[in-house]
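Moderator note: this is an archived Q&A kept for reference. The question asked for a predicted structure of one protein chain; the sequence and the answer are reproduced below.
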Amino acid sequence: MTDEQLHIPPRVTRVLMTEEAIYGLILVSGMIVVSDAAVGTSINALITVGITVLVFYAAHVYAGTLGRLAATDGQAGLRASLRASLHQSSGMLVASALPLLVLLLGATRVIEDNTANWIALILNTVMLGILGWIAVARWSTHWVPRILSAVITAAFGLILVALKVLIHH
């Protein structure tokens, strides 16, 4: 399946098919593991993950803006560099939206705390696998590289799931 077959709008696909989106999902998973080890509540995970994602996003935008200005000897202009960096980095925010929503459901007691944390981690792992699959499906019709890409990308999430299991058992 490709992003078109999954009915993902092209604009969303462009934002999610970035290293920032994949990095954002891995960051969110790591923060869930760390915050869960400290307190174990989804409200704590929601606050920790939300603030961390915003700080990393801001740092990424800042660094991207400076990098664009430096690469063009300032010719790109501050506004254009900032706008380009905001757009490039947006995948980090978009990718973190679903896991943050799951953590919010736990924080508001719609679902149990521990369950919300696990669902968010598993959701991240599945999303990583899907992004890995779609990325390769855009340039290859062969199943093997698609599956390998999905497995490798999802493995980053699986490693963090394993870390959560080790920390709590």
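Archived answer notes: The chain has six helices and no strands.
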